[in-house]
């Protein structure tokens, strides 16, 4: 029964989605155009905005899925002005709502925020707007807990509805309803009553989370199964994606960053994401020692310092901000030319958001991730206790381990979309250096060796971290932990890849142990290892290509729209005779050669 209902709901959504909502012959179409130009001073809609606006003005419940920065707010702000009555906007963060109310007020659009932080009198005035038939306020912003915790708010909202003034309920960041998402907020579940309490009032949910499971869950929780889902593409064609080999020492990392800032990204603005406050402070200090103007940003700084740092970056005094992910909200700098991840993100969702802060102006920008196996455990020990935490992280690791498929393809998969290679336009490292037939390593014999090492250690009551496992495998470290066979005939870097590959495939698993100061990840044999014994079982890992990247030369080509074929490869050598490249690795990632600039 459940599955039948799900199929019917899905059919409903598909049918609704097959309607072309972006028409211009609705009774409100002229009004919509005028409001866009005269009130918002915007010349034209971005993809899917008009469809979202028409559908909600038609009274449909709808969920709008667009990447961050695509312009979701307009989808409820504009309709609010086209029809009489009040739009209630639910949003999780006061600061976000304050920003919106401020910018609406600047455009002479009457909007108000109901807070619990302001004075009694203030919130009382805001609450009375709901009851006041004469009020000229068009949009009212509230946090979700209002619906659960404020009787007075609910009573006033009832009155507003009874008077026929409740025009629409917009729920921003609507994925917060779902536990499957990455940002579950318990207060959002109270919003499930709205569709029954206010029949005929269209609900408009908005989010940048596109996974099918989250969207169906949201529909279920809001009691609007089978509603229209309007989704724009998540492809950002002007962003170049790249994985960079991360050296083992912090000093070498800083050297790479220095070279990038002084070379490839000279005079450009960007962000360097780290995964700890300490890293962000250390790297800032080191880069400053080397004469670079960078700011540091994390949650432990007080609000005024943070604002200062942000402004200095905005005004180009700082070339880059070295930040934790606390740096994100309210970045409206459109000419961010690079986002470097010094440590991998905790999920693809996060990576997409963080890297997506580059290139908002539509011009070419680069998203570079520094990857090495050790960082997997830096992050896993932080996320393993949250539901889906490891699974999300492993999605990110798969992206990093990939060296044979277009990076866009992997990002698209995450958003349940399909983007062909053609959509990449050589805007990722893999497409830039295509490998005609990637070499593969047969992992079966190595699986046996690794499982043997782990069992042998276990018998001696020794737990192995990934590094220790790697040591024993390469016949390093304590002799009693080593295996009896030969060491692998490939590099340690590739060995790291093998271990990470086996982890994300559940052939190996992490086992977490707390100490007084930290959490340690040990490696154990995973549930899929059994299958390896089967003769007919094949387990080959495509060898990642460690492609070349010019740290000091600027990117070779400016991004051109997809129709134009960009002939030259990334970092082409035209007119740049003495280019230094820090590390050049052969396809097998075997030996690291160093070339010095002359
Ligand atoms: P989202 O909520 O999807 O992250 P916002 O609604 O905050 O994005 O909009 C991001 C920016 O894009 C805002 O500055 C907004 O004014 C601008 N914007 C929205 N729609 C358009 C448009 N059609 N043309 C130009 N700018 C737009
Ligand atoms: Mg938004
Ligand atoms: Zn590609």
UniProtKB/TrEMBL annotation:
Per the UniProt entry, the signal peptide is: none
Enumerate the spans annotated as Helicase ATP-binding domain.
Answer: 53-228
Write the Enzyme Commission number(s) for this entry.
Answer: 5.6.2.4
User: What are its GO biological-process terms?
Assistant: double-strand break repair via homologous recombination
Question: Where is this chain primarily localised?
Answer: nucleus
Sorted alphabetically, the keyword list is: ATP-binding, Coiled coil, DNA-binding, Helicase, Hydrolase, Isomerase, Metal-binding, Nucleotide-binding, Nucleus, Zinc
As one GO molecular function, the record gives: DNA binding
Give the catalysed reaction(s), semicolon-separated: Couples ATP hydrolysis with the unwinding of duplex DNA by translocating in the 3'-5' direction; ATP + H2O = ADP + phosphate + H(+)
Cofactors per UniProt? Answer: Zn(2+)
Compartments in which it is found: Nucleus
The protein's matches in CDD domains, at most eight in alphabetical order, are given as: DEXHc_RecQ1 (cd18015), SF2_C_RecQ (cd18794)
One GO CC term on file? nucleus
Q: Does the keyword NAD apply?
A: no
For bias type Basic and acidic residues, the affected ranges are: 570-591
Helicase C-terminal domain location is: 255-401
Q: Does the keyword Nucleus apply?
A: yes
Region Disordered, as annotated, extends over 570-598
InterPro entries documented for this protein: DEAD/DEAH_box_helicase_dom (IPR011545), DNA_helicase_ATP-dep_RecQ (IPR004589), Helicase_ATP-bd (IPR014001), Helicase_C-like (IPR001650), P-loop_NTPase (IPR027417), RecQ_Zn-bd (IPR032284), WH-like_DNA-bd_sf (IPR036388)
Family to which this protein belongs: Belongs to the helicase family. RecQ subfamily.
Q: In UniProt terms, what function does this protein have?
A: DNA helicase that may play a role in the repair of DNA that is damaged by ultraviolet light or other mutagens. Exhibits a magnesium-dependent ATP-dependent DNA-helicase activity that unwinds single- and double-stranded DNA in a 3'-5' direction.
The record's section on NCBIfam families has:
recQ_fam
Name assigned to this protein: ATP-dependent DNA helicase
